[in-house]
Structures are given as structure tokens and as C-alpha cells.
Write a structure and sequence with these properties.
Shape: flat
Number of strands: 0
Number of helices: 30
Strand content: under 5%
Helix content: 55-70%
Radius of gyration: 23 Å
Largest sheet: none
Order of helices and strands: HHHHHHHHHHHHHHHHHHHHHHHHHHHHHH
Distance between the termini: 19 Å
């Protein structure tokens, strides 16, 4: 099955940095500044903004500190398997702010024409990426990945497994099946299970179901096998998941929450109407853990079961569990049209005043997925009465609606809130959603503001989304000025998406350097995220160079897979839907991390 592995590399390298406040739930940056006025990125989790009683996301600290000056030496750090460097610049946010949502969704938007993606059900159209690599280079790349799948380093093998799944090459299935069965490393076997769900067909169903239903296997392996079964999309696969999840009350009670929730996600990924009874039963079964019920709700949205609209609406209004309300909001956002007045009113009710801030935020995004003047007018009213924490989400919702009449409101807000980088970033992205090419001057000005760190990266991404090739010189000037790897990565990625060859030259030179693992890995991931076919030969060379650091080789293998990716609708988008990226389930966190970092 052809698929795109959606997901952005948001893992980072941990170094000791000064603790301070940071973005929290879409708020503005309040951290310390260097003498030049550039905010210093922070490490560690922020306080507030997360799900009450629920998880926050994120990991260790964020890379080398911003110097604000050229020529300062970046401290060398050694990454671990779970802390590979980012392909974009991410703000130091560990809570559930809009920045976190964008970090998990931006690749789909950056790769599609404006208006081609939706916030809760990402099904983008492919951006025109030219003719792809020459056949000889593509063949060399696939062979390099097959060789990497037999590499001594588990990091390289794991990256090769997911990269092979991106290639749509007929040889990938046999390689992945062997890895899923026989690899010596648990992580590699589990990654291969997930990859089999992407490229495998009905012939893989018995093997995947055998892992899913085997109580002696680890919960993570069983859960990933369930998700993979759903991604295969075969009717028998969906029936087997449903049968395993409903063996009778006593037997069902023995199914771990981890496995049960993953099975429900698999049912959603399969998108078969036959899964609906199991999903409804799970959502309404109050004896199940709230996290399991939450995944039942998002799966109903993935299946598109409009017969469950009233059930979801009642849960939004009446459930005491924030995770369940949030998931029902997401599910409604996937299915509603402007005619569904009662359900829209429920979303408006929680968007205005749900006791959980995260539910409010995702209700706004759900409203943004609904076209119609009546919904637009309600969003404008909400935006006008917003606090800073709310403005970012509601601005994004206005942008996602696709109604250009709101552009004057967003441009005015961009100018009025000039002092707050988080707001500036959200407005920039919202204007790009609306294909506001008249905002080009505003965005270019933001890119050029040297005393700022995060908002210029969002402005550059917005210009890339707009396809503003006229802005390449401005973005390149910031790339040339910047010293922090994350800011350079954001600028180089934007240039690469715009087709500017200078970004390839800069990142290839950085990839060749052997002084910093961080910089070399970042360069590889930027080339992959920008899908630079002109860098394939260098990446193939790096992936096969046994004298290079294994993390650099792993990043090179990952980049090869991203470049060879066919660009079809991302089957794995459901894993990165808002509910899922906030989920503390070990299997989902593992799948998300592997997709982000590989």
C-alpha cells in the first residue's frame, strides 16, 4: 500500500540550558534574552497549559543555546536513540500550545497547496515535486536502504525500515517481514511491524494478527501490530481486530488498556463500517479507562460514522472526562457540515467555556474545519473576545476555514500584537492557510527581525506555504546570518520547499562536516523534509559510510526515505491527530517518536 509517513522530527538533543518560562498553551514567550536581545531557548517542561490530570508531551532540553552572534562555537553533544535533532525549529514548549499542534501537523501543510489539508483529518494533495530522482539514482537509494536494514547499528536499521516503507518498492515487504520476525533488537522489530502496516497487503494479516492476539508478547508489540492491521485496510483485518477486542466480558477484562486502545485506533485506521458497533460500545462503556474511550471516539471520527453524531455531541456536553470530551470534539470536526446545527452549537459551547483549556482549543480547530458564513461569523466573535492564550487557536481556526474575508482581521492582529512572538507566529501560519500573498511584505519583514528567534521561523514557513519564491533572498539572508542550528534548519527547509538550490548547498556542506553530530544530523533531516532530490547522492554516500557516526547514518537513511516518498495521502496521519499526540499510551508514543525521528 502506498503511503506517506507523515510526521515531523520534533525530538531534540538535551543540553543544560537556563531554566525559564516559555510558551505555555499558545501564550507568548517570556524567557530570558541574550545581550543582543534574542530569547534563549529553555529546557524542561513548562508549567500550566497541559491536560488537567493528563499528560504533557515533549522530552529533554532543546539543543545549543542561541548566541545571537556569528562565529561562536556550538557546544558538541552526543545524541541518543530517542533524541535525534529536529528538521525544523521548534519552540521550547512541552505543554499543549498551538506550537505543539503545529509541530505535529506542519509537514502535511507545507507539502500541500494552501487549502489542501484539514486540521483534524489530514488528507493533503501532493505538492508538485517535479519528476523525482532519475531511475538510476532511485535504484541506488533503495539498495542503500536494503543494505542499511542489515547494518550492525539498531538505530540505522530502524531508520532504514521506515524509509523502506516510504519507497513503495516491491522488495520492501520481504525485508520488513524478516526484520519484524527475526531482528535482534526489540525496537527494530516493533518499527518493522508498523512499517508492514504501510506497505503490506492482505497476505500479512495472519502474521500481524498473530502478534496482536498473542498475550505472551509485549504490550507495545501487540499494540503496534493492531495499528498495522488497521492500516492494511483489509476487511478481514478489521474483523479480526474487532473479534479480538470482543471475546466476551471476562476475557475482555484481561485485555490491557494499551492493547485495547491500540486496537480501537486500528479499527479507525481501517475505516470500515463494520467497526462501528465495537467503537460505539467502547465509547459508552464507563468501566473502560477514559483513555480507551477517548480513542474509541477519535476512531469513530476516522471511520466517518455520521450515525454517531448525536452520541458524540452528548459526550461533548456531558462527559466529566476531559480526554473523552476532547476526542469527541475532534471526531465531530472530521464529520460536520454547516447544516449540523445542534452539534455545531455544542462545539461553540465548549469553545467558549469548557473547564479544560485544551478542549476549548481543539473545539475551535474543529469549528475551523466547517465551511460556512455562520460558523465564520461565530469564530470572528470568539476571536474578538479572546485572551492571548485563545487568540492563537482561534486565528488558526479562521485560517483553516478558508474564507478570505477574515484576512483584514488577521493582518490587523498581526500588526497589533507585534510584541508577542507566539501570536505573530500563529497569525503568520493562519494567513498562509488563506493563501494571503498580500501578506508577503509583513512576513518578509518578520523573517528579517534579528532580535527575534521563533516568529521568523514561522514567517519563513508561511512564505514556503505560499510558494513565495520572490522571498527566497530574504530567507537566505536570515539563513546566512543565523548561527543556531534550529533557526538555520527552519530557513533552509523553507528555501528547499521553494526550490532554492542554495539551501541544498548549505545543508550538504553541513552534512559533510564531522565536527558535530547534531549539525550533520540536522542537515540530513532538512534535506529530507524539503525533499531535495539533488541531495540524494550525498545522502546515499553518507548512509553507506561505515566510518561515519551511526546517528548521522540513521538520519541520512531517514532523509532518503522522505525524498523517495510517493507523496500520497498519509495513512499514518491518524497517529498524529491531536488526541493521539497527547496520548500517554506507550505504543502511540513509541510510534510517534519513531515517525518523528526517522
Amino acid at each position: 500500500m502506498r503511503a506517506i509517513l507523515s510526521g515531523i522530527l520534533t525530538g531534540v538533543i538535551g543540553v543544560g540550558l537556563l531554566p525559564s518560562g516559555a510558551f505555555a498553551h499558545g501564550g507568548y514567550y517570556q524567557g530570558p534574552r541574550t545581550p543582543s536581545g534574542v530569547p534563549i531557548p529553555t529546557s524542561g517542561p513548562t508549567t500550566g497549559g497541559g491536560l488537567r490530570g493528563g499528560p504533557t508531551t515533549g522530552g529533554g532540553g532543546y539543543g545549543p543555546a542561541v548566541t545571537g552572534r556569528k562565529g561562536k562555537k556550538v557546544r558538541e553533544v552526543t545524541p541518543s536513540t530517542t533524541t535525534l535533532p529536529p528538521a525544523f525549529a521548534d519552540p521550547p514548549v512541552m505543554a499543549t500550545g498551538w506550537e505543539q499542534w503545529w509541530a505535529f501537523h506542519r509537514e502535511e501543510f507545507l507539502r500541500t497547496e494552501p487549502g489542501g489539508a484539514r486540521p483534524l483529518d489530514v488528507t493533503p494533495r501532493q505538492r508538485d515535486s517535479g519528476d523525482g530522482p532519475p531511475e538510476g539514482v532511485r535504484e541506488a537509494a533503495v539498495r542503500a536502504l536494503i543494505a542499511a536494514s542489515k547494518e550492525g547499528s539498531a538505530d540505522v536499521r530502524a531508520s532504514a525500515a521506515l524509509a523502506l516503507a516510504r519507497t513503495d518498492d516491491e522488495r520492501a515487504v520481504a525485508v520488513l517481514r524478516s526484520m519484524a520476525s527475526d531482528d535482534a533488537a526489540d525496537d527494530v522489530r516493533d518499527v518493522a511491524l508498523l512499517a508492514l502496516g504501510i506497505v503490506g497487503g492482505p497476505i500479512e494479516v495472519p502474521f500481524l494478527h498473530g502478534v496482536f492476539s498473542d498475550a505472551s508478547r509485549s504490550e507495545r508489540a501487540r499494540a503496534l501490530a493492531a495499528i498495522a492491521l488497521g492500516m492494511v485496510g483489509d476487511e478481514d483485518a478489521v474483523d479480526l481486530i474487532a473479534m479480538t477486542l470482543t471475546p466476551g466480558e471476562k476475557a475482555a477484562a484481561k485485555i490491557p488498556d494499551e492493547v485495547m486502545a491500540a486496537g480501537l485506533i486500528g479499527l479507525g485506521a481501517g475505516r470500515r463500517p463494520t467497526a462501528v458497533p465495537v467503537l460505539r460500545q467502547a465509547l459508552t462503556n464507563v468501566r473502560l479507562h477514559s483513555l480507551v474511550r477517548a480513542h474509541a471516539a477519535t476512531a469513530l471520527g476516522a471511520v466517518g460514522d455520521r450515525g454517531s453524531l448525536e452520541l458524540l455531541r452528548r459526550q461533548v456536553l456531558n462527559s466529566r472526562e476531559p480526554l473523552v470530551r476532547q476526542s469527541c470534539v475532534i471526531a465531530l470536526g472530521r464529520m460536520l457540515s454547516v447544516e449540523d446545527v445542534e452539534a455545531i452549537n455544542a462545539l461553540l459551547h465548549v469553545a467558549k467555556g469548557d473547564r479544560d483549556q485544551t478542549v476549548q482549543s481543539f473545539a475551535a480547530l474543529a469549528l475551523g474545519a466547517i465551511d460556512g458564513e455562520a460558523v465564520r461569523d461565530q469564530l470572528l466573535v470568539l476571536f474578538a473576545s479572546s485572551s492571548d492564550n485563545d487568540k492563537t487557536w482561534r486565528a488558526l481556526a479562521l485560517g483553516l476555514q478558508g474564507d478570505a474575508t477574515v484576512l483584514p482581521t488577521l493582518r490587523s492582529a498581526f500588526r497589533a500584537d507585534d510584541h508577542e512572538e507566539s501570536l505573530q507566529g500563529a497569525y503568520a501560519i493562519a494567513m498562509a492557510f488563506l493563501h494571503d500573498r498580500e501578506a508577503r511584505a509583513l512576513l518578509e519583514s518578520e523573517v528579517s527581525r534579528h532580535r527575534r528567534f521563533w516568529s521568523p521561523t514561522y514567517a519563513a514557513q508561511a512564505l514556503a506555504m505560499l510558494g513565495s519564491r520572490e522571498s527566497a533572498d530574504v530567507i537566505h539572508a536570515r539563513l546566512d546570518w543565523a548561527t543556531d542550528p534550529r533557526q538555520r534548519a527552519a530557513m533552509a527547509t523553507a528555501l528547499g520547499i521553494l526550490g532554492d538550490e542554495r539551501s541544498t548547498k548549505a545543508m550538504v556542506q553541513q552534512l559533510r562536516g564531522e565536527d558535530s553530530i547534531y549539525l550533520a544530523c540536522t542537515a540530513a533531516m532538512v534535506l529530507g523534509a524539503a525533499r531535495r532530490t539533488d541531495a540524494l547522492e550525498e545522502l546515499i554516500k553518507t548512509a553507506g559510510d561505515v566510518d561515519r557516526n551511526r546517528y548521522v547514518r540513521a538520519c541520512a537513511a531517514s532523509a532518503i526515505g522522505r525524498i523517495l516518498d510517493s507523496g500520497d495521502v498519509p495513512v499514518l496521519a491518524d497517529l498524529l491527530a491531536p488526541q493521539h499526540y497527547l496520548s500517554p499510551l506507550v505504543s502511540i508514543a513509541f510510534a510517534r517518536d519513531m515517525l518523528d525521528k526517522r
